[in-house]
Every structure is written in C-alpha cells, then in structure tokens.
Amino acid sequence: MTQCVLITGANGFVGKAVSRALLQRGDSVVGAVRRAHTAADGVREWLLDTDDFQGIEPRWPVALHCDAVIHLAARVHVMHETVADPLPAYRATNVDGALRVAAAARRAGARRFVFVSSIKAVAERSVGRPIKETDEPAPSDPYGISKLEAERALLDYGRESGLEIVIVRPPLVYGPGVRANFLQLMGAIAKGVPLPLGAIAARRSMVFVDNLADALVHCATDPRAAGHTFHVTDGHDLSVAELARALATQLHAPLRLVPVPVGVLRLAGRLTGRSAQVDRLIGELRLDSSHICERLGWYPPYTVEHGLLETAAWYRSTH
C-alpha cells in the first residue's frame, strides 16, 4: 500500500537517498527544506525556514496529510566546535526540534515517526563485542548526549500520544556524495599519500547510504517496527586498513600503508591535541544489527563491495 512520507532534511546526503527509495516504491514524498529546488527529483518541497522547527504547527499546510515522518534534520557532530558550551545548541535542534516535528505531525494525522539517531547516542567505541540496542548508553559528547535525550523524549511522547516511534542508530554512513573524514580518506588514497594505518586491526561498522535508506523505508512502513530501536549496518565490518585497501582498488590508486604502531599514533594524537580523532581512527566500533533482521526480516540489499564501488565511481567522476 502506497503512502505519503514527510522527510525533514530531505535535501541532505541521506535524505535524497531515502526520497529515491520511497519514490521507487510508488510512495509520495514531501521534503521539508530551507531552500527551494534542493530535494531529489519527484519530491514535493515544503519550504520551512525556521530555527529548530519553531512555529512548525501553524505553518503546517492544511492539505498535507502524511502517514509517516522520517526525521533526519539535526545539528550534526562537528570536529571543531567553536561554542564554549555547545550542548544547549545541540539540545535546541536535536531534542526540542524533533519533539516539535513529532507533535505537529501527530496533530496532522501521522501515525509513525522515525527518528534517525546515531550510534554516538550509546558509545564512541565497542569493547570486545558489538554494541546491542539493549546496552546501557554512555554518550561522551554533546552530539551523542542530545541524540540520546531526543530518543528518550520521543519515546515518552509516543507513549503519551499514541504516535508510533521508531529509533534508528546508524554508524558511519558512506556513499556517493559523502563528506567529512570518508571523503578526506578517499582524497588521500587517490593522491597516493602515505597513510599510517597499516597496523590498525580494529574493525568499525559502516552502512552504505542506500542500505540505510532501505532500512528507513522498512521502519516507516512495517507495522512490526513500532516502538523499536534498531542498529543498521552493512553486516560486514572492515578494519581501517581493509577499508583503505578496498578503496584503493576501486579508485585504481596505489596504496601506501605505513604500519605505524598504535601506541605511536596515540602519542601523536596527544601531542597534537587530536586524541579524539586518533581514538576514532584506531578504536573498535562494531554494532550488532541482528535485531532489525529478526524483527522486520530486513537484510542489507547491497554488499560493502557494491557500496564502495559506487562511492569510488562517484569520487572519480567528480574529483
């Protein structure tokens, strides 16, 4: 059965992939965006230029009746925060903003609200085994703290209002159009820059953007998803060194991996004030994504190899 889905952050990296996946199913998609003509083709845009979704309810179009909302808009994790105490700003967008959208959607007749959180709501790293949805959360930065607070506030609101809440916690998302660290890694490999990653054996979960989009469609449409929290991954975790080798192959570039001991990398991180970045690079962060497989019968439609091939092809065509 086709339905209408509202996507906040519809013009972003993940939002465009989710839009395409819904449109391919035959669903109608409304994208809440700040700027016109920025969403994927076929998406009906709703121009909503407000801070933290303040005043969304009176601005809600009378004719807009959506079955579900996929909430992607967020104040994202940034590497170099300029505000002395950024937590209030994260809360204003990621907690208060999400609750405003959920309340407005429920009053407009939506039955389900899919909140795209982050594994950072639970932890920055795993220790010895993959992180499960039932593990006790211990976020370590303002972004992760705000995402966890939003999860809990939304679940409370869902219990009070009857709105079906689904929480999705992805790890690193990659694919055509990726930015930040993943793009920098591809750039360094493409240029043949020597990388001190040869001795890093720790594995990290990732998710190809089209796999995440497919999972979010299931979470928005499958009755069995209501009230659940899901970790979503590609189902095959690579070490950083394995990732670099795979990207070098797809980029048709020579790989220069230098086996720098992990202890030396940690020391370099402390000396340069980049311990957090080094820890993210060398630490294990594996997710257990079996719950969504068992509950919804969902399995990633694309392999890691396919995802990296698509990502590298995009990089070669645009850089």
TrEMBL record:
<dbReference type="InterPro" id="IPR001509">
    <property type="entry name" value="Epimerase_deHydtase"/>
</dbReference>
<dbReference type="Pfam" id="PF01370">
    <property type="entry name" value="Epimerase"/>
</dbReference>
<feature type="domain" description="NAD-dependent epimerase/dehydratase">
    <location>
        <begin position="5"/>
        <end position="229"/>
    </location>
</feature>
<dbReference type="GO" id="GO:0016853">
    <property type="term" value="F:isomerase activity"/>
</dbReference>
<dbReference type="InterPro" id="IPR050177">
    <property type="entry name" value="Lipid_A_modif_metabolic_enz"/>
</dbReference>
<protein>
    <submittedName>
        <fullName>N-acetyl-alpha-D-glucosaminyl-diphospho-ditrans, octacis-undecaprenol 4-epimerase</fullName>
        <ecNumber>5.1.3.26</ecNumber>
    </submittedName>
</protein>
<dbReference type="InterPro" id="IPR036291">
    <property type="entry name" value="NAD(P)-bd_dom_sf"/>
</dbReference>
<keyword id="KW-0413">Isomerase</keyword>
